[in-house]
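Quick check before the chapter quiz. The format below is the same one you will see on the exam, so make sure you can read both the input and the output lines.
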Amino acid sequence: MTNSRSTIFFTLLLITLFLLSPPAFGDSNNNNNAFLTYTCSSYDNYTANTPYANNLKQALYQLTSTAPPSGFGLTSVGDDLQNQVNALALCRGDVSPTDCKTCIQVASNEIQQQCLNKKGGSIWYDFCFLKYSNIKFFGKIDNGFRLYMWNVQEAENPTVFNEQVKNLLTSLVEQVEVTPKLYVIGEKENEGSKKLYGLVQCTRDLSTAACKKCLTDAVAELPRCCDAKIGGRVIGGSCNFRYEIYPIVDAQK
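Here is the expected output.
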């Protein structure tokens, strides 16, 4: 896909999300495992009952078992490189193993429908992220897709608020290097008695240095993504961040 086609698709996707689902994004009910988006990352096709199709089903099945206990799993299925399937699943750091497994199962079923017969795809929910490909991507920062989401409401003092958001997320990115799960949550005093809450996370196939770079690049998108918005997030294939003026996860309550 060319850069111009990617930009057009990305713009249309943002417009669709903005028109159809802004109320859901502002919902502070953290028990709602909302669907966020998906992308099919390969033009290569496979057909039913072929080695690739069978390897894909096995890889996704393995992830439903291996990922939930720790919140992360990756697998490669198939000795033949032409038909090898590489896949990973990541659950948000606070999600229980039970909810993690349920989310991965739902994601596995949905991505096979949305990316029917495609050899690569990614899907995001609030609780989990799942990705598969015929190309071995482990350990590499995925900059192929980035989604911006934001709360339509704007801060009363945009300049001060933007600086507070940047400071919070930057401090969380600094902490991620010493966190085994590559997942950090935090909060910061906002104007008056209000608080600002943040979350950063990477897929655990990345090194700590690569995770920090991925998140630093994502946070640099704040002016483009979420200028003066009271809530926002950037979601990618290797890392994501989110900030809100209400607790994002139960641990922040």
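If your answer matched, good. The beta strands are 35-39, 72-77, 85-91, 120-125, 128-133, 146-150, 183-189, 195-202, 232-236, 239-244.
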